[in-house]
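2024-03-11 09:14:02 INFO receiving multi-entity request
2024-03-11 09:14:02 INFO entity count = two
2024-03-11 09:14:03 INFO echoing inputs for audit
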Amino acid sequence: MEAILFWICGVLLVLSAMLMVVQRNTVAAGMWMLIAFMAASGVLAALAAPFLAFFQVFVYAGAVLGLFLMAFMLVQAPVRPDGRRTLPMMTYVLAALPAISLLWSTVLWVQRRGTMVFEGPATDGFGSLPAVSRLLLGRYLPAFELACLIVLPAVIGWMALVRSDRSRPWKSP
Amino acid sequence: MEITLTHYLLLATAVFLVGMVGFVARRNAMVMLMCVELMLCAVSIVFAAFGRWHGDESGHVFVLMIFVVATVQAALGLALLVEIYRRRRTIDVDELKTLME
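2024-03-11 09:21:47 INFO inference complete, emitting structure
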């Protein structure tokens, strides 16, 4: 069961992520992102994390994607067609370095550790809402409070950014 | 075939790489933000996988923190983008080089 879920959702996740990146139409890219997040939710479910899988759909596919779709509607800017980007070759080399090093370190690590098999199936109730919330409101309460502190400036910043102050001079492009 | 921790790590690496390449290669600032979300998603898979490996839900709590950061990042980033678009009528990151040089 776990294997079926992993293979279907994992392949779907990688494929939809690739399609999202190559998509020229922004709204279509957003739809592929939705599929990618749904697939990621399936991967989390395969990992015996039902609460996280539920939350992934709730937060990403619901809140974040709704936000993105709202922004798609407000911003309808044309992006220049490809082929006019002239960056020095060194930029591409520098950009490829972290990607290659990440890939290399993962491959090295996997080679060194060998295949890491999980010790049996997850215990009953692992990753459920009571188990996670006991940790969240117990051992990790300070972290939880700090996360709330992050949200507060975000709300203030959002309101400061989008307030409809039309007295400012508009700059022409 | 049994699914091991290695499978999950390789999957997360693949997703992270796709997001990273997209972030570098695309010029549409909104798609770049989406790529950041994708990378965060890959990291949350790693946290959940190691939570399962150690039989401890601490990894799940970290994923919840990532959710908070991802949401805040999307909200603030999109607000900035909308504001930039209002002023400059573009979200092409190559065009937005007021701070360059």
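2024-03-11 09:21:48 INFO post-check: The mean pLDDT of chain B is 86.
2024-03-11 09:21:48 INFO post-check: The helical segments of chain B are 5-25, 29-54, 58-88.
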